[in-house]
Amino acid sequence: KKSSDKEYVPLSSYEISFASLLAIFVCVCVGLIALSWLSVQDLERAEADVNTHGYMGIFKIASGTSFTPTLQNSSSADFKVLAFDVEKLVRTYWPVIYFISWNNELTSLFCIASVVAIVTLYFTQMVTVEKVKNELVLGVIANNPNPTKTLKIDVNSIQITGNTAFCCAVIALIFIIPAECLPPAELCADGVTCISEDFFCDGVLDCPDGSDESEKRCAAVCDGKFMLTGSSGFFHSMNYPKPYNTNIVCQWIIAVPQGLSIKLNFTSFETQPYADILSIYEGLGQNKVLRASLSGTNLETIYIFSHEATAQFMSDYSENYNGFNAMYTAFNASELNNYEKINCTFEDGFCFWIQDLDDDSDWERVQGPTFPLMSGPEFDHTFGNLSGFYISTPIGLGYIEERVRILSLPLVPSDMYCLSFWDFMYGGNVYRLRVSISDERGQEKIIFEKEGNYGNNWNYGQVTLNETSGFKVIFDAFKRNGPSDIAVDDIGLTKGKCNEDNYIEPTVRPTVATTPLVPS
């Protein structure tokens, strides 16, 4: 009897193998078809028409990225992000670029730059090498962003080379190089920018990331301070009040609110004379102007008519003294009246008088006799003894003819004033003392002048000022070869016309010491 149920016969091993091979073959075919389709699409995109043209471009990324070891790995996220950013940047400058792609090659390059990009740019129309470069340069100039926020291309580094034949492997290389700077330049913290070592810690931001003026780098070895930004403050020499170290350089930046000026004085000051010097500059950076060089036991008060100043102390290899403690305060110079701007006995410094920057040398503040003794006073006029101060042409034998000049702050015209002073002109070679007025346009007129030897005495001078517009007072002294020092002391201003009949005899020693007129 036959069974009604169907009988199932198992597949043989040959049949199973055949079915497996068939399935694999189908998968391979599908994969090849898909791969071919993708290749065709990629090729069609790169060769949109038969006139596609490629150009090799090279440029340096000046800022916005820095070297890290991960950038040497082409599969790292940092590398891919940088490649994407560069491509986006180039497309911003040249929107008509048809195609850019990257491969993963890296190489080493010995140069100062940190990141150099080499890209191949493809255009659907023929353009000249000059046009490619010019358009890219113009795009960089017009669109270079803030270097502290994103990538910035060095426009001077852009190079474009000839027509590159298209092939399936489009080349775009990025060179990642640890930055190096040729002396005397140093590297900023961004790892990219090189600046002169003189630009570090000078109060002016030169590095894109501001690292050249960081407190960590620039804090003075003297007292750990660098930027002094309050309306008042202090700084001091190393180890103060104990002796400072040898061969040190300390620098401080003082910045008070804009529109104010800076007053600098000292509670104590003792350094090696003419060797360990505290220099006070008006302004910051490479354009700062030297206003005072202090050494010895100088307690002089310095006025800087700017809201920014630089102080620098340098010691040599020997004879360390106890140093100094300096204090600064901000003040408003526009609130000074004419009398405060002029009156000065030079006991506490030059008061509000300013050394001219365009003369041959500077007036010197002197205590006691000048040298040699054949010219110049032995003592000041204010006190008539060796404790007092006066100002003099540069002390010593003159070797060339030179002019020194000090100027007042601008004065406000108001009725008449009497300008008075004491001068000392002694010696056969003494030349000329001149007082002038400079108006608001800078035009000068002489209001007082004398020449020659007036004896071993302090002599009184006076002149009436009757100006109708703003003006400055100028004292010029001219020195010749040989001993020819000229000294001035006790400059004063009183209201009203000078009394021409009030002639004062020259004095060797004043009978009564003049009351010092020192700015508060």
TrEMBL record:
Tell me the PANTHER family matching this sequence.
Answer: APICAL ENDOSOMAL GLYCOPROTEIN PRECURSOR, MAM DOMAIN-CONTAINING PROTEIN
What keywords would UniProt list here?
A: Disulfide bond, Membrane, Repeat, Transmembrane, Transmembrane helix
Superkingdom of the source? Answer: Eukaryota
Name the Gene3D superfamilies for this protein.
2.60.120.200, Low-density Lipoprotein Receptor, Spermadhesin, CUB domain
**Residue span, MAM domain:** 342-500
The name this protein carries in UniProt is: ENTK Enteropeptidase
Q: Which residues cross the membrane?
A: 21-40, 106-124, 160-179
Record bears the keyword Protein biosynthesis: no
Signal peptide as annotated in the record: none
Check the record and name the Pfam families matching this protein.
Answer: CUB, Ldl_recept_a, MAM
Sequence ranges assigned to domain SEA in this UniProt record: 51-165
Domain CUB: start-end pairs: 222-331
Q: Name one GO cellular component term.
A: membrane
Give the gene symbol. Answer: Tmprss15
